[in-house]
Amino acid sequence: MKSLGLDVGTKTIGVAVSDAFGWTAQGVETIRWKKGDEESAIKRIEHFIAEYDVSTIVVGLPKNMNGTVGERGEACLEFADQLKERTGLEVTMWDERLSTVAAERMLVSADVSRKKRKNVIDKMAAVMILQGYLDRQQSAK
């Protein structure tokens, strides 16, 4: 079964999916959404759950550098609760501190233009969140 990784932002949600073995994460899409319209975002996520036969959802949890959960983190926790209630799937929170920064650095080092980076940064952050989760699962075996 596959895992779905999500980088939930205020305007976009980066989406990544694992391979069937749980070894690698690939970027899928960046969902554009508006606060208060969780319904459309969740419907799109449900589409990916069905399309990729997903059994686990991993949601990035943006913690403060001191480890506390701030306003953005609370919003991600609420979104994760909605996903769990709606899908019935296991939803795991994953510490995503600096995942967007790391994704940005990777894209800059690959000489991706600023305009193109803007279009894929959230999807790449979702890949990094999911890959971190997958790596931890593999090392636990």
Automatic annotation (TrEMBL):
Localization (cell): Cytoplasm
Primary location: cytoplasm
SUPFAM superfamilies named among the record's database cross-references: Ribonuclease H-like
Entry-linked Pfam families: RuvX
Any one GO MF annotation of this record: nuclease activity
Enzyme Commission code: 3.1.-.-
InterPro entries noted in UniProt: RNaseH-like_sf, YqgF, YqgF/RNaseH-like_dom, YqgF/RNaseH-like_dom_sf
Record GO biological process: rRNA 5'-end processing
Domain named YqgF/RNase H-like: residues: 1-103
Function of the molecule: Could be a nuclease involved in processing of the 5'-end of pre-16S rRNA.
UniProt similarity note: Belongs to the YqgF HJR family.
Name under which the protein is recorded: Putative pre-16S rRNA nuclease
Species classification: Bacteria, Bacillati, Bacillota, Bacilli, Bacillales
